[in-house]
Amino acid sequence: MAEASPGTPELYTARSGARIYRLPLRLFPGLDGYAHLVLDGGLQMLVDSGSGYGDSNDDLEAGLAAIRSDFGEDVGWESLTHVLLTHGHIDHFGGLPYVRPRTRALFGVHELDRPTVSFHNERLAVVAHRLRGFLTEAGVEAERLEHLMDLYLVSKHLYASQAVDFTYEACGMKVGALELIHVPGHCPGQVVMRLEDVLLSGDHVLPETSPHQSPETLTLSTGLGHYMDSIQRLKPLAPAIRVALGGHEGPMTDLAGRLQSIEAFHRERLALVERLLETPLTMAELSDRLFPAASGYHALLAFEETGAHVEYLVQRGLVGLVNADVLEDDLPEPTLYVRRGPHAPPSEVGRSTAGDGSSRESALGGIRGEQADVQL
Which of 14, 210, 287, 305 could link 368 by a cystine bridge, Cβ 3.0 to 4.6 Å? Predict the structure, then answer.
């Protein structure tokens, strides 16, 4: 039985009268999201293209048709001026092979995500090699490792590389009235797009989910350190934002509060990791303690999420390696991690917000990341 239609587009209006439409999309089984259509003066800018999988392309077409019929807008493939990507994860760019032959619009992406979009097979080979090494060092048994690698690769081969017409830094981080702000962490080339008092936040900030993190050892310019820095970068802008629209889930009307909540969530998880590492553990053992219910693709996300938090602590000298000498072996044993001191004051690491109501997530909770949002 086909899944129900994801719904009809919603209209948001910026202070100047520019119009932003949210197009609901079914991206992968169990994962919904949005593309956005920005109409500002003579510009028609499609932000993200969906996954290209299953019903996603049909939903994109239905969304454009509904904007024409329900809102009276003269929009369509032939009138698009730009197709802009918030970041290089396949649930946001996988629809490009469908979109590209239907429009003469200019395609744009941040420089750090251009390799993923335009040289996909090469990028996939590099990261798959790094992921295998990461899982081996983490202590994942051989049979489970091969299963996780199959899960990682299963949807990635559906995409065919697409050329882009421009990159964001080369054009001054602005397209029309859209201000582009680089916020690496969840993805190397993640940007948020500000149109006056409306923010298109991609997957950098979501209202219910703390976006998935993976270690920078897999992909440069990811990692929890970059992500936390990017959260800080948005804080001065938050008071001027009336509504933030992410790539998944509902609108956000308190961006400042949501940024604080996400930051508190990761601080709690860092503190929990330190407590668990009072006893030396491999990454696999630690991941199983943090996410005991994770299975299938979510188990892979759990390993990456664990790795991102351990990496953050190792980089700051708060966690160390018990058996660093084994890394010199041709067939190294799994790496053992342990908490080390002295520690940063609680205001910097391990700050707990339990009981104050500021965080909607719990560090003891499940995986906070979308099924299709593992890093390339």
Answer: 210
